[in-house]
Amino acid sequence: MDIDLPEVVAEVRAAFERYERALVGNDVAALDALFWDDARTIRYGGGENLYGIEAIRAFRAARSPAGLERTLEGTVITTYGRDMAVASTLFRRAAGRIGRQMQTWMRTPQGWKVAAAHVSVIDDPL
Q1: Rounded distance, CA 15 to CA 13, Å?
Q2: What is the DSSP letter of 35?
Q3: Which of 26, 62, 77, 91 has the fewest CB atoms below 10 angstroms from its CB?
Q4: How many Å apart are CA 92 and CA 90, to the nearest integer?
Q5: What is the dihedral of CA 39, 56, 120, 105, to 10 degrees?
Q6: Would you say 92 and 77 are in contact if contact means Cβ atoms under 8 Å apart?
Q7: Is residue 73 within 8 Å of 89, Cβ to Cβ?
C-alpha cells in the first residue's frame, strides 16, 4: 500500500480545508455534503454521540452558529492508498482548553467524504 501519495494528500487537504471553512462559517449544506450520506456514518462530538447521517444533519441544523471560530494547529493528514485517509488536528477556542479532532475520509464517486469523526476537548497541558 502506498502511504501519503502527494497528489492524494493534496486532495484530502483540500477537502479538509473546505470542511474547516464550512464549519467556522456554519455552512450547514456544505458540512452535510462533506459527510458520507449513509446510516453507518458516525460523529462523536464534544457532548453528543451521533450515529448515522440523519442524526448528524439534525445536530448541525439545530446547533447555534455562535462561537464556531477557532484556530488549528498540528494538523496531520495521512493517506492510505488512493481511497482512505485520516485527518487529525488540534484546535483552540476558549483559553485553557484544547480541542482534538480526527476524521476518517474516504473517496466516493461523489468525492472525498467523512465516514467517521471524533471531537473532544481537554484542559490545555501547557
Answers
A1: 5
A2: B
A3: 62
A4: 7
A5: 60
A6: no
A7: yes
User: 79 has which bridge partners?
Assistant: 85
Cell output for 23:
464549519
Q: Which amino acid is at 13?
A: R
pTM: 0.93
Sheet holding 71-80, edge to edge: 49-51, 42-44, 111-123, 97-108, 84-92, 71-80
Take residue 108 and report the three cell numbers written for it: 466516493
pLDDT in tens, 46-71: 899 999 999 999 999 999 988 889 99
Angle at 120 between CA 10 and CA 42, to 5 degrees: 70
Query: Chain centroid to CA 107: how far?
Result: 14
109 by DSSP, 3-state: which?
Answer: coil
23-50 pLDDT, tens digit each: 999 999 999 999 999 999 999 998 999 9
